[in-house]
Amino acid sequence: MLRKDLYRYYNPVFHRFEWNEPSYIVIALYRVSRAIRMMPKWCFPVKLLLNLIIVPIYAFFSILLGISIPRGAKIGPGFRIYHFGTIVINPKAVIGKNFSIHHGCTIGVKNSYYDQVIIGDNVTMGAGAKVLGNLKIGNNVTIGANAVVLSDVPDNSIAVGIPAKILPKKNEYDIKRGPFN
User: Which end of the chain has fewer CB atoms at under 10 Å, N or C?
Assistant: First the structure.
């Protein structure tokens, strides 16, 4: 999965990888921490030792860069963070492949700690967007900048406004690529 995340950091305009993006550090640490967390129980001593090493490093970079991605969150391959800072993801979140998120976004709870956001494949969250509550975001969805999503969003849609209004994507370009990808 880490390789697919790295692929998303390739800049086709300048034909290079964006190594200067600090957000990739948090994604790499999330992937390693998640792998350690998913180790079987019989590996407890090794798991404990690895956690003693990785958790402080992960916490340091999460605080330094302002990106909170708990190890409980399930995020598919191709995860991309644009412009790090003030990103919060609920530990119960389930996110599909090719997810893009910009700075200032929150995927969180609305009423209860049991709220779970399920996000499909090829979803992009614009800067400052909030997805709150126990809801499902479909595949090929774009959530506009500063939108506050409080209800389910169907496949091939755009969510804009406060509270978010759901609009269908108009053409094949919007469905395949989306305005932020």
Answer: C
Fold of domain 2-176 = UDP N-Acetylglucosamine Acyltransferase; domain 1 (2.160.10)
The per-residue pLDDT string of the chain (181 residues; one tens digit each, 9 = 90 and over) reads 778 888 888 888 888 887 778 888 999 999 999 999 999 989 899 999 999 999 999 999 999 999 999 999 999 999 999 888 899 999 999 999 999 999 999 999 888 788 899 999 999 999 999 999 999 999 999 999 999 999 999 999 999 999 999 999 886 655 555 544 5
Three-class secondary structure of residue 14 per DSSP: coil
Q: Which amino acid is at 76?
A: G
Cα–Cα distance, 161 to 148 (Å, whole number): 7
Q: What angle do CA 18, 23, 24 make, to 5 degrees?
A: 60
User: Rg of the chain's alpha carbons, rounded to an integer?
Assistant: 16
Task: For the chain, give every domain's residue range.
Answer: 2-176
User: How much is the pTM?
Assistant: 0.86
What is the CA angle 37-60-92, rounded to 5? Answer: 40
